[in-house]
Structures are given as C-alpha cells and as structure tokens.
Specification:
36% of the residues lie in helices and 15% in strands. A 3-stranded antiparallel beta sheet has the order 1-7-4, with no helix packed on it. Strands 2-3 form a two-stranded parallel ribbon. Strands 5-6 form a two-stranded antiparallel ribbon. The two termini are 21 Å apart.
C-alpha cells in the first residue's frame, strides 16, 4: 500500500512575511534528467524553501486542468460557513485529517494565521480522512481522492526534502 504525505488545502491570511518574488523551479530535470540534474533541482528547491518558504513548480507533469480544478475546489471549501467547516474537524484531532481553523496550529511555536484542510491516502484505514458531506460539497471527496493519487508523481519530492539518496533510474 502506498502512503504519502497528506494532501493539504490551505488559505493564508497574513502575507506580511512573504518574499516579494516566489522562485520558479523547473521540475522536468528532476523527473527526466540525470542524477546530477536531480541533485541540482533538489538543491534549488531546498534553497528556495529555506530562504523564501514557497516555490512555483512548473513542468511537474500534472495537467493544468487538474491543478485549476484543485484551486476551484479549495475556494469552494473555504467559502463554506465556519460552522459547516467546523463539522469537518474531527474531535479529537488525530493524524492531521480534516479541517483546521485559524489559530489552531503552530509552526516553530508561532500560531498559524491560516485555515487548512488535510487529507491522506484514501486507502489508509488507520488514519481515516474527515470529509464534508456530499450534500454540503457535492463531488469534493471524489475529486480530492482522485487528486491524491496524482501525488504519487511527487513521491520523489520526499527524497528531495529529506535529503535522502535518490533511487537510481
């Protein structure tokens, strides 16, 4: 069974600390290049995330149609009322699945001023996802579970971010 990092939809409210330009990184050399290309791409991603905190990844292999649909679903999810979104928040909050409201998470001892929705592998029976009802957001679960499968393409990103040795291709 494939497991991966959870899929996360997030909307950030404070951009005060955001760098004025977000680095753009071509992922094609990582996907199709040599070991040296993968290492250079990994280094560029590491540098950008360490210095800026964000990247714009292009040539990643995911159809733009799917990426656009993901943003549209995210907008619809976060447009729900606070009470509807709160119903997607599991209690107690286990395994970072479901909705988390503004101020409910910390990073480096700082309260996060964002809301987000996390889901993981739909086949993981130990860490079940929390979903909005089909009546509340028709089609969201189906799209999100399908999009999660697209993340398999990015399993090598885990190697990049953790600094592990890349598998030979």
């Amino acid at each position: 069974m494939f497991t991966s990092r959870p899929l996360r939809f997030a909307r950030t409210y404070s951009l005060a600390q955001m760098h004025p330009t977000i680095p753009s990184i071509d992922f094609n050399p990582f996907l199709r290049g040599s070991a040296g290309d993968r290492q250079r791409t990994a280094s560029a991603i590491d540098e950008a995330l360490s210095s800026v905190g964000f990247i714009r990844l292009h040539n990643h292999g995911i159809e733009q149609r799917k990426v656009g649909a993901c943003f549209q679903w995210s907008k619809r999810l976060f447009a729900l009322s606070d009470s509807d979104k709160g119903a997607i928040h599991p209690s107690p909050r286990l395994h970072n699945r479901g909705y988390s409201g503004i101020g409910n998470e910390k990073v480096r001892d700082q309260i996060c001023m964002k809301e987000n929705f996390d889901c993981g592998n739909p086949e993981d029976d130990e860490r079940r996802n929390s979903w909005p009802t089909e009546e509340l957001l028709p089609g969201f679960r189906h799209f999100t579970e399908d999009f999660f499968q697209v993340q398999i393409l990015f399993k090598n990103v885990t190697y990049v971010l953790r600094g592990l040795t890349f598998p030979k291709t």
